[in-house]
Amino acid sequence: MTGRLAGFVFALAVAAVAGPAWAIVEGRDVQPQDFRSEAEKQRFRHLIKDLRCTVCQNQNLADSNAALARDLRRRILDQIQAGKSDQEIIDFLVARYGDFVLYRPPFKRSTWFLWLGPFLFFLVAAAILVAIIRRRGAATAALSAEERARLDAALRRAARDRSAS
After folding, report:
1. Distance of alpha carbon 92 from its chain centroid, rounded?
2. Is pLDDT of 30 > 90?
3. What is the three-state SS of 49-112?
């Protein structure tokens, strides 16, 4: 039993030492007291809401709890405090992570389908719908006079039978 107790004490000691070290490795997130002014805080919030976390699927840096998002929030604040403009900060992140970090990527050769894809999809769907409607119209117009008379007679009989029941 004392061997188990010694093992437990050793594991507890390792956790007590490693826990704070892990927090240092993880990186400290931006805290309210880190801002020098309200304008700096607003600028920071605007940037992290408009930039995508590259680890999370469709989350911005403001909403993500990923370690990379915490690191990027810290880097953005550091760059704001270093006097960089919003565009310089965005350019830094795009150079490092690509256009994926932007919620609104620029229109260029590699992103044209993102911008035009929905419109192309709509045009294809509309063309298919028009083709279906035209085929239906052509199918009824293709009836001969005799077939149309038989169809009308069958519809009248069906209507009489329904009203009789």
Report:
1. 22
2. no
3. HHEECCCCCCCECCCCCCHHHHHHHHHHHHHHHCCCCHHHHHHHHHHHHCHHHECCCCCCCCCH
Q: How far apart are CA 25 and CA 94, in angstroms?
A: 25
pLDDT of 56: 82
How far, in whole angstroms, is CA 8 from its chain's centroid?
45
pLDDT band at 8 (very low <50, low <70, confident <90, very high): low
> How big is the chain, counted in residues?
165
d(CA 8, CA 4): 6
d(CA 81, CA 119) in angstroms, rounded, equals 42
**Cβ atoms of residues 76 and 68 within 8 Å:** no
75-122, pLDDT tens digit by residue?
Answer: 999 999 999 999 999 999 999 988 888 878 788 887 788 788 899 999
Domains annotated on the chain, with CATH: 31-101 (1.10.8.640), 112-164 (no CATH)
pLDDT value for 13: 59
What residue type is 2 in one-letter code?
A: T
Which amino acid is it at 95?
A: A
Residue 32's pLDDT is 61
DSSP 142: T
